[in-house]
From TrEMBL:
InterPro entries, alphabetized: LD-transpeptidase, LD_TPept_cat_dom, Transpep_catalytic_dom
Entry's family note: Belongs to the YkuD family.
Protein name: L,D-transpeptidase-like protein
Record has Ubl conjugation as a keyword: no
Domain L,D-TPase catalytic: 4-160
GO molecular function terms listed in the Swiss-Prot or TrEMBL record: glycosyltransferase activity; peptidoglycan L,D-transpeptidase activity
Superkingdom of origin: Bacteria
Pathway of action: Cell wall biogenesis; peptidoglycan biosynthesis
GO CC term, one of those recorded: extracellular region
Keyword Chloroplast among UniProt keywords: no
SUPFAM superfamilies: L,D-transpeptidase catalytic domain-like
Length: 167
């Protein structure tokens, strides 16, 4: 394993930041409601080794709303949330993931990057620790800012399903 990495536990709905063999930070997350899977259009969270392809939102205020990886000029509020209850809110920061494993999570119909799978902020009112997303990995805003400031493009990310938890 690389000396520094992120590990996402689908079983525990947790994201851990490792420096060497030591877990230095841990946060609750929400991954896909439909479970683990790599297929395009599945709304599932892809497993395996990834890397951070791009980091979007540096310097934006907490709650900045993104659509298509671009800030809309809106900042999320409970009132805005009530006006648009159908929106899947992507807020504050985006860590866009790219798969490292051809045929597993890279290229063809299993390409994490082309599926637009991110680690991103969500409204702080959204529950974490439960699988409720459309495939991405959601975090509360203050947590995704802390994570964003602790990683760099190319940083390794391992997304583990329950059957991989012992590895």
């Amino acid at each position: 394993m690389p000396p520094s990495r992120l590990e996402v536990s689908l079983a525990d709905q947790r994201l851990d930041l490792f420096r060497g063999h030591e877990c230095v930070r841990s946060w609750p997350v929400s991954t896909a409601k439909k479970g683990a899977g790599e297929q395009s259009g599945s709304e599932k969270t892809p497993r395996g080794w990834h890397r951070i392809r791009a980091m979007i939102g540096a310097g934006c205020p907490a709650g900045t709303v993104f659509v298509g990886r671009r800030p809309t000029g809106e900042v999320w509020t409970p009132e805005l949330g009530k006006e648009h209850p159908q929106r899947d809110w992507i807020l504050t920061r985006i860590l866009w993931l790219s798969g490292n494993e051809p045929g597993v999570n890279r290229l063809g119909d299993v390409d994490t990057q082309r599926r637009y799978i991110y680690i991103h902020g969500c409204p702080d009112s959204e529950p974490l620790g439960e699988a409720l997303s459309h495939g991405c990995i959601r975090m509360h805003n203050r947590d995704v800012i802390t994570l964003f400031d602790a990683v760099t493009p190319g940083f390794p990310v391992l997304i583990k399903s329950p059957d991989q938890e012992s590895t």
